[in-house]
Protein backbone atom coordinates (compact mmCIF):
# COMPACT_ATOMS: atom_id res chain seq x y z
CA UNK A 1 0.00 0.00 0.00
CA UNK A 2 1.42 3.38 -0.98
CA UNK A 3 1.22 6.49 1.17
CA UNK A 4 -1.24 8.06 -1.28
CA UNK A 5 -3.68 5.40 -0.06
CA UNK A 6 -3.28 6.19 3.63
CA UNK A 7 -5.33 8.76 5.51
CA UNK A 8 -4.45 11.19 8.29
CA UNK A 9 -6.85 13.06 10.55
CA UNK A 10 -6.37 15.58 13.33
CA UNK A 11 -7.77 14.64 16.75
CA UNK A 12 -8.20 11.05 15.62
CA UNK A 13 -7.24 9.92 19.13
CA UNK A 14 -10.48 11.34 20.58
CA UNK A 15 -13.42 9.01 21.09
CA UNK A 16 -16.60 9.43 19.06
CA UNK A 17 -18.34 10.82 22.17
CA UNK A 18 -15.56 13.36 22.75
CA UNK A 19 -15.62 14.48 19.14
CA UNK A 20 -19.39 14.82 19.26
CA UNK A 21 -19.18 17.02 22.34
CA UNK A 22 -16.31 19.21 21.11
CA UNK A 23 -17.01 19.68 17.41
CA UNK A 24 -19.88 21.14 15.45
CA UNK A 25 -18.11 19.74 12.40
CA UNK A 26 -15.28 17.24 13.10
CA UNK A 27 -11.95 17.28 11.23
CA UNK A 28 -11.96 15.53 7.87
CA UNK A 29 -9.42 13.01 6.72
CA UNK A 30 -6.69 14.11 4.31
CA UNK A 31 -4.05 12.29 2.30
CA UNK A 32 -0.79 13.00 0.54
CA UNK A 33 -2.91 13.40 -2.61
CA UNK A 34 -5.16 16.12 -1.12
CA UNK A 35 -3.28 18.91 -2.90
CA UNK A 36 -0.78 21.42 -1.58
CA UNK A 37 -3.30 24.14 -0.69
CA UNK A 38 -5.09 21.87 1.77
CA UNK A 39 -2.05 19.86 2.81
CA UNK A 40 0.03 22.91 3.74
CA UNK A 41 -2.72 24.13 6.07
CA UNK A 42 -3.21 20.60 7.43
CA UNK A 43 0.43 20.35 8.58
CA UNK A 44 -0.44 22.04 11.87
CA UNK A 45 2.28 21.40 14.43
CA UNK A 46 5.16 19.59 12.72
CA UNK A 47 7.24 17.60 15.19
CA UNK A 48 11.01 17.43 14.62
CA UNK A 49 12.85 14.33 15.81
CA UNK A 50 16.59 13.49 15.55
CA UNK A 51 17.37 10.67 13.13
CA UNK A 52 19.82 9.03 15.54
CA UNK A 53 17.17 7.97 18.06
CA UNK A 54 17.61 4.21 18.69
CA UNK A 55 13.83 3.83 19.06
CA UNK A 56 12.98 5.84 15.95
CA UNK A 57 10.31 3.46 14.66
CA UNK A 58 8.54 3.15 18.00
CA UNK A 59 8.73 6.90 18.54
CA UNK A 60 7.17 7.70 15.15
CA UNK A 61 4.35 5.20 15.66
CA UNK A 62 3.75 6.42 19.22
CA UNK A 63 3.56 10.07 18.25
CA UNK A 64 1.25 9.32 15.33
CA UNK A 65 -1.12 7.54 17.71
CA UNK A 66 -0.93 10.54 20.06
CA UNK A 67 -2.05 12.97 17.36
CA UNK A 68 1.05 14.01 15.40
CA UNK A 69 0.10 14.28 11.73
CA UNK A 70 3.34 15.67 10.30
CA UNK A 71 6.89 14.87 11.36
CA UNK A 72 10.42 15.77 10.27
CA UNK A 73 13.25 13.32 10.94
CA UNK A 74 16.33 15.51 11.22
CA UNK A 75 19.81 14.76 9.88
CA UNK A 76 21.06 18.32 10.19
CA UNK A 77 21.53 20.45 13.32
CA UNK A 78 20.05 17.83 15.68
CA UNK A 79 22.85 15.36 14.79
CA UNK A 80 26.52 15.74 15.82
CA UNK A 81 28.82 15.68 12.79
CA UNK A 82 30.44 12.43 13.88
CA UNK A 83 27.05 10.66 14.10
CA UNK A 84 25.68 11.49 10.64
CA UNK A 85 26.62 8.18 8.99
CA UNK A 86 25.01 6.19 11.79
CA UNK A 87 21.95 8.44 11.76
CA UNK A 88 21.49 7.84 8.03
CA UNK A 89 21.71 4.07 8.55
CA UNK A 90 19.24 4.31 11.42
CA UNK A 91 16.81 6.32 9.31
CA UNK A 92 16.97 3.87 6.40
CA UNK A 93 16.38 0.93 8.75
CA UNK A 94 13.47 2.70 10.42
CA UNK A 95 11.73 3.72 7.19
CA UNK A 96 12.19 0.20 5.80
CA UNK A 97 10.51 -1.23 8.88
CA UNK A 98 7.70 1.32 8.69
CA UNK A 99 7.11 0.50 5.02
CA UNK A 100 6.80 -3.20 5.83
CA UNK A 101 4.37 -2.62 8.72
CA UNK A 102 1.13 -1.61 6.98
CA UNK A 103 -0.87 -1.95 10.21
CA UNK A 104 0.52 1.18 11.87
CA UNK A 105 -0.85 4.63 11.15
CA UNK A 106 1.86 7.05 10.11
CA UNK A 107 2.08 10.84 9.94
CA UNK A 108 3.27 12.70 6.88
CA UNK A 109 7.02 12.06 7.02
CA UNK A 110 9.78 14.41 5.89
CA UNK A 111 13.56 14.26 6.24
CA UNK A 112 15.67 17.32 6.96
CA UNK A 113 18.96 16.88 5.13
CA UNK A 114 22.31 18.63 5.44
CA UNK A 115 23.14 19.19 1.79
CA UNK A 116 21.51 18.58 -1.62
CA UNK A 117 23.18 15.31 -2.70
CA UNK A 118 22.06 13.65 0.50
CA UNK A 119 18.53 13.45 -0.94
CA UNK A 120 19.09 11.19 -3.96
CA UNK A 121 21.59 9.16 -1.94
CA UNK A 122 19.00 8.47 0.76
CA UNK A 123 16.27 7.68 -1.74
CA UNK A 124 18.58 5.18 -3.48
CA UNK A 125 19.24 3.47 -0.14
CA UNK A 126 15.56 3.43 0.80
CA UNK A 127 14.50 1.51 -2.30
CA UNK A 128 10.82 0.55 -2.02
CA UNK A 129 10.68 2.08 1.46
CA UNK A 130 10.58 5.50 -0.24
CA UNK A 131 6.79 5.02 -0.16
CA UNK A 132 6.72 6.26 3.46
CA UNK A 133 8.70 9.41 2.61
CA UNK A 134 6.62 12.46 1.65
CA UNK A 135 9.45 14.89 1.05
CA UNK A 136 12.42 16.82 2.36
CA UNK A 137 13.08 19.89 4.47
CA UNK A 138 15.79 21.99 2.82
CA UNK A 139 17.83 23.92 5.42
CA UNK A 140 19.68 27.19 4.87
CA UNK A 141 17.82 27.60 1.58
CA UNK A 142 19.02 30.63 -0.36
CA UNK A 143 18.84 31.90 -3.91
CA UNK A 144 22.42 30.64 -4.31
CA UNK A 145 21.94 27.13 -2.85
CA UNK A 146 18.31 26.61 -3.83
CA UNK A 147 18.93 25.55 -7.42
CA UNK A 148 21.23 22.74 -6.27
CA UNK A 149 18.61 21.57 -3.78
CA UNK A 150 15.84 21.48 -6.37
CA UNK A 151 18.00 19.76 -8.99
CA UNK A 152 18.99 17.12 -6.42
CA UNK A 153 15.32 16.67 -5.60
CA UNK A 154 14.65 16.00 -9.30
CA UNK A 155 17.27 13.25 -9.12
CA UNK A 156 15.64 11.85 -5.97
CA UNK A 157 12.27 11.79 -7.75
CA UNK A 158 13.70 9.81 -10.65
CA UNK A 159 15.38 7.31 -8.34
CA UNK A 160 12.32 6.87 -6.16
CA UNK A 161 9.72 6.87 -8.90
CA UNK A 162 7.52 9.40 -7.11
CA UNK A 163 7.23 13.15 -6.73
CA UNK A 164 8.55 14.29 -3.37
CA UNK A 165 7.53 17.54 -1.72
CA UNK A 166 9.89 20.24 -0.46
CA UNK A 167 9.83 22.64 2.47
CA UNK A 168 12.69 25.15 2.19
CA UNK A 169 13.85 26.83 5.39
CA UNK A 170 14.52 30.57 5.36
CA UNK A 171 17.33 31.12 7.88
CA UNK A 172 20.33 32.72 6.17
CA UNK A 173 22.20 35.96 6.66
CA UNK A 174 21.46 36.94 3.06
CA UNK A 175 17.75 37.16 3.86
CA UNK A 176 18.13 38.68 7.33
CA UNK A 177 20.62 41.46 6.64
CA UNK A 178 18.94 44.70 5.56
CA UNK A 179 21.31 45.44 2.67
CA UNK A 180 20.61 42.12 0.88
CA UNK A 181 17.09 41.22 2.03
CA UNK A 182 14.94 42.61 -0.78
CA UNK A 183 17.16 41.19 -3.52
CA UNK A 184 17.37 37.80 -1.79
CA UNK A 185 13.61 37.51 -1.24
CA UNK A 186 12.91 38.55 -4.83
CA UNK A 187 15.30 35.90 -6.16
CA UNK A 188 13.88 33.30 -3.79
CA UNK A 189 10.36 34.00 -5.00
CA UNK A 190 11.39 33.53 -8.63
CA UNK A 191 13.21 30.30 -7.79
CA UNK A 192 10.33 28.83 -5.81
CA UNK A 193 7.77 29.75 -8.45
CA UNK A 194 9.66 27.78 -11.07
CA UNK A 195 9.08 24.64 -8.97
CA UNK A 196 5.80 25.69 -7.41
CA UNK A 197 4.04 22.30 -7.65
CA UNK A 198 6.45 20.67 -5.20
CA UNK A 199 6.83 23.51 -2.65
CA UNK A 200 4.50 22.50 0.17
CA UNK A 201 5.38 25.31 2.58
CA UNK A 202 8.13 27.77 3.46
CA UNK A 203 9.53 27.33 6.97
CA UNK A 204 11.28 29.93 9.13
CA UNK A 205 14.45 29.00 11.03
CA UNK A 206 14.19 31.41 13.95
CA UNK A 207 16.98 29.80 15.98
CA UNK A 208 19.55 30.21 13.19
CA UNK A 209 18.31 33.72 12.45
CA UNK A 210 18.68 34.77 16.09
CA UNK A 211 22.15 33.19 16.16
CA UNK A 212 23.36 35.61 13.50
CA UNK A 213 23.10 38.34 16.14
CA UNK A 214 23.92 36.22 19.19
CA UNK A 215 20.30 36.40 20.39
CA UNK A 216 17.95 33.98 22.08
CA UNK A 217 14.43 34.86 23.19
CA UNK A 218 13.34 33.96 26.71
CA UNK A 219 10.17 31.92 27.45
CA UNK A 220 8.48 35.17 28.46
CA UNK A 221 9.00 36.76 25.03
CA UNK A 222 7.74 35.81 21.59
CA UNK A 223 9.75 35.87 18.40
CA UNK A 224 7.84 39.05 17.57
CA UNK A 225 9.61 40.78 20.47
CA UNK A 226 12.94 40.10 18.74
CA UNK A 227 12.60 42.96 16.29
CA UNK A 228 15.41 42.04 13.92
CA UNK A 229 13.72 38.68 13.25
CA UNK A 230 10.16 40.01 13.46
CA UNK A 231 10.91 42.46 10.65
CA UNK A 232 12.10 39.58 8.49
CA UNK A 233 8.95 37.57 9.20
CA UNK A 234 6.92 40.53 8.00
CA UNK A 235 8.96 40.76 4.78
CA UNK A 236 8.84 36.99 4.13
CA UNK A 237 5.04 37.05 4.37
CA UNK A 238 4.97 40.20 2.23
CA UNK A 239 6.95 38.63 -0.60
CA UNK A 240 6.25 34.89 -0.27
CA UNK A 241 2.94 34.63 1.58
CA UNK A 242 0.57 36.68 -0.55
CA UNK A 243 -3.08 35.59 -0.77
CA UNK A 244 -3.46 36.41 -4.47
CA UNK A 245 -2.65 32.91 -5.68
CA UNK A 246 1.08 33.57 -6.04
CA UNK A 247 2.04 33.00 -2.40
CA UNK A 248 3.04 30.00 -0.34
CA UNK A 249 2.04 28.86 3.12
CA UNK A 250 4.63 30.18 5.59
CA UNK A 251 4.88 28.22 8.84
CA UNK A 252 5.57 29.55 12.33
CA UNK A 253 9.05 29.16 13.84
CA UNK A 254 9.95 26.76 16.63
CA UNK A 255 9.09 27.40 20.28
CA UNK A 256 12.18 26.24 22.17
CA UNK A 257 10.84 25.80 25.69
CA UNK A 258 9.00 22.97 27.42
CA UNK A 259 9.71 23.70 31.09
CA UNK A 260 9.44 27.05 32.78
CA UNK A 261 12.43 28.94 34.16
CA UNK A 262 12.39 31.70 36.77
CA UNK A 263 9.94 34.41 35.72
CA UNK A 264 10.29 38.18 35.71
CA UNK A 265 6.75 38.80 34.46
CA UNK A 266 3.30 37.44 35.19
CA UNK A 267 2.08 34.38 33.24
CA UNK A 268 0.48 35.29 29.90
CA UNK A 269 -2.71 33.27 30.36
CA UNK A 270 -5.74 34.94 31.90
CA UNK A 271 -7.45 32.94 34.63
CA UNK A 272 -11.02 33.61 33.56
CA UNK A 273 -11.22 31.31 30.48
CA UNK A 274 -9.94 28.43 32.58
CA UNK A 275 -12.22 29.25 35.53
CA UNK A 276 -15.23 29.41 33.21
CA UNK A 277 -14.47 25.91 31.90
CA UNK A 278 -13.51 24.51 35.32
CA UNK A 279 -9.92 23.92 34.22
CA UNK A 280 -7.84 25.91 36.71
CA UNK A 281 -5.42 22.99 37.12
CA UNK A 282 -4.83 22.97 33.36
CA UNK A 283 -3.77 26.61 33.47
CA UNK A 284 -1.22 25.81 36.17
CA UNK A 285 0.24 22.96 34.13
CA UNK A 286 0.52 25.13 31.03
CA UNK A 287 2.27 27.90 32.92
CA UNK A 288 4.68 25.46 34.58
CA UNK A 289 5.74 24.17 31.15
CA UNK A 290 6.15 27.65 29.59
CA UNK A 291 3.19 26.85 27.34
CA UNK A 292 1.58 30.20 28.03
CA UNK A 293 4.33 31.80 25.91
CA UNK A 294 3.71 29.29 23.12
CA UNK A 295 -0.02 30.04 23.14
CA UNK A 296 0.64 33.74 22.78
CA UNK A 297 3.14 33.18 19.97
CA UNK A 298 0.71 30.95 18.04
CA UNK A 299 -1.87 33.73 18.20
CA UNK A 300 0.71 36.21 16.93
CA UNK A 301 1.76 33.77 14.18
CA UNK A 302 -1.76 33.69 12.78
CA UNK A 303 -2.22 37.45 13.12
CA UNK A 304 0.96 37.90 11.05
CA UNK A 305 0.03 35.46 8.28
CA UNK A 306 1.78 32.25 9.44
CA UNK A 307 0.08 28.85 9.58
CA UNK A 308 1.21 25.82 11.59
CA UNK A 309 4.42 25.66 13.59
CA UNK A 310 7.66 23.77 14.04
CA UNK A 311 7.58 21.77 17.29
CA UNK A 312 10.39 20.10 19.22
CA UNK A 313 8.34 18.62 22.07
CA UNK A 314 5.19 16.45 21.99
CA UNK A 315 3.38 18.73 24.45
CA UNK A 316 3.47 21.51 21.86
CA UNK A 317 1.47 19.50 19.32
CA UNK A 318 -1.84 19.58 21.16
CA UNK A 319 -1.51 23.31 21.84
CA UNK A 320 -0.83 24.34 18.24
CA UNK A 321 -3.47 22.02 16.80
CA UNK A 322 -6.13 22.96 19.38
CA UNK A 323 -5.58 26.60 18.52
CA UNK A 324 -5.99 25.76 14.83
CA UNK A 325 -9.59 24.57 15.31
CA UNK A 326 -12.03 27.08 13.82
CA UNK A 327 -14.53 28.55 16.25
CA UNK A 328 -18.21 28.37 15.43
CA UNK A 329 -18.30 32.16 15.11
CA UNK A 330 -15.31 32.25 12.75
CA UNK A 331 -16.84 29.56 10.56
CA UNK A 332 -20.21 31.29 10.27
CA UNK A 333 -18.51 34.56 9.32
CA UNK A 334 -16.36 32.79 6.71
CA UNK A 335 -19.34 30.95 5.25
CA UNK A 336 -21.36 34.17 5.03
CA UNK A 337 -18.57 35.83 3.06
CA UNK A 338 -18.07 32.87 0.74
CA UNK A 339 -21.81 32.36 0.18
CA UNK A 340 -22.08 35.96 -1.01
CA UNK A 341 -20.19 34.89 -4.15
CA UNK A 342 -19.29 37.78 -6.41
CA UNK A 343 -21.36 40.30 -4.53
CA UNK A 344 -19.72 43.25 -2.84
CA UNK A 345 -20.56 45.33 0.16
CA UNK A 346 -20.75 44.69 3.88
CA UNK A 347 -22.64 42.08 5.88
CA UNK A 348 -23.41 42.26 9.56
CA UNK A 349 -21.95 39.31 11.42
CA UNK A 350 -24.52 36.81 12.61
CA UNK A 351 -23.13 37.39 16.10
CA UNK A 352 -23.84 41.11 15.86
CA UNK A 353 -20.32 42.12 16.88
CA UNK A 354 -18.42 42.89 13.68
CA UNK A 355 -18.72 43.67 9.99
CA UNK A 356 -17.88 41.17 7.26
CA UNK A 357 -16.74 43.07 4.18
CA UNK A 358 -17.09 40.64 1.30
CA UNK A 359 -14.21 41.50 -1.02
CA UNK A 360 -11.47 42.22 1.58
CA UNK A 361 -12.44 39.22 3.72
CA UNK A 362 -12.76 36.62 0.94
CA UNK A 363 -9.12 35.42 1.08
CA UNK A 364 -9.38 35.09 4.86
CA UNK A 365 -12.65 33.19 4.50
CA UNK A 366 -11.15 30.73 2.01
CA UNK A 367 -8.19 30.00 4.27
CA UNK A 368 -10.53 29.65 7.26
CA UNK A 369 -12.68 27.15 5.33
CA UNK A 370 -9.57 25.07 4.57
CA UNK A 371 -8.58 25.16 8.23
CA UNK A 372 -12.10 24.13 9.22
CA UNK A 373 -11.92 21.18 6.84
CA UNK A 374 -8.80 19.68 8.41
CA UNK A 375 -9.02 20.90 12.04
CA UNK A 376 -12.78 20.98 12.42
CA UNK A 377 -15.26 23.55 13.71
CA UNK A 378 -15.72 23.78 17.46
CA UNK A 379 -19.20 23.40 18.89
CA UNK A 380 -20.92 26.45 20.33
CA UNK A 381 -19.48 27.21 23.75
CA UNK A 382 -16.35 25.10 23.19
CA UNK A 383 -13.06 26.99 23.44
CA UNK A 384 -9.42 26.07 23.03
CA UNK A 385 -9.43 25.41 26.79
CA UNK A 386 -11.82 22.49 26.27
CA UNK A 387 -9.82 21.18 23.32
CA UNK A 388 -6.58 21.37 25.29
CA UNK A 389 -8.15 19.65 28.29
CA UNK A 390 -9.23 16.77 26.04
CA UNK A 391 -5.86 16.55 24.27
CA UNK A 392 -3.18 16.98 26.94
CA UNK A 393 -2.34 14.14 29.33
CA UNK A 394 -3.42 14.73 32.93
Principal-axis shape equals globular
Share in β-strands: 5-15%
Amino- and carboxy-terminal Cα gap: 36 Å
The poorly predicted ranges are none
**Class derived from helix and strand content:** alpha/beta
Total count of domains: 2
The CATH top-level class label of the largest domain = Alpha Beta
Largest sheet properties: 7 strands, parallel
Mean pLDDT: 90
Defining traits:
TIM Barrel, two-stranded antiparallel sheet, alpha/beta, 11% strand, 2 domains, 17 helices, 46% helix, seven-stranded parallel beta sheet, 394 residues
SSE map:
Elements (H helix, E strand, L loop, with lengths): L15 H7 E3 L10 H7 L2 E6 L5 H10 L4 E5 L9 H17 L7 E5 L5 H9 L8 E4 L7 H15 L4 E6 L2 H4 L1 H17 L8 E2 L1 H6 L15 H14 L31 H5 L3 H9 L2 H13 L5 E3 L2 H9 L5 H12 L6 E3 L6 E3 H18 L1 E2 L5 H8 L3
Parallel strand pairs: 2-3, 2-8, 3-4, 4-5, 5-6, 6-7
Antiparallel strand pairs: 1-11, 9-10
Description:
By secondary structure, the chain is of the alpha/beta class. The chain is 46% helix and 11% strand. The strands form 3 sheets. A 7-stranded parallel β-sheet has the order 7-6-5-4-3-2-8, covered by helices on one side. Helix 2 packs across helix 16 and helix 15 packs across helix 16. The mean pLDDT is 90.
